[in-house]
Amino acid sequence: MDRKTTFYVLLLSVIMIFTLQSCGGAKPVAKVNQETEVTVPCEDQVTDKNFFRGQGTAQSKDLNTAREKARMNANNALATSIQVTTKRVTERYVNDAGQSPADYAETFESLTREAVQETLNNVTVSCNKTMKTTDGMYKVYMAVEASKNEVFDAVNKRTEVNRKIETIYNREKFRKIFDEEMGKTQ
Length: 186
What we know:
elongated; about 55% helix; Thiol Ester Dehydrase, Chain A; alpha+beta
């Protein structure tokens, strides 16, 4: 090999070495989008055949504020759960009673709203977890519950004294439909 060819081979070798080094050599294979399961405190506290339940979460720099907001959110979720179920019950009940739903639905809804308000005054906290975030915030997870029987009794009490509804109200029939709807929540 002559000097000129040797020089070019060496020059090409040096260029290739620098090129490979500037690429950083072999790179690790990029990770495919991996998922991580997240466990949310109090998430297992759901409405079942015996209890209405609601969950709430809140975050604040002040612990008491976070707790109050979480409880308010949980109470709102509980109220919604009760209202949805009692609305289904009253619609079925009025239809089964052979009455025009329009005549009684509004009255039943009003009575159930009152019952929900009474029930919210007596809820029990079934789960309460407090976390502190890396930025110094408090995050509170809370679940509240009200017994199915307590809700039924509150609705029943209001229904029995209402003049408009007393002509079609049958406690046992209403209870049967109420229990059936609660059984569907499992």
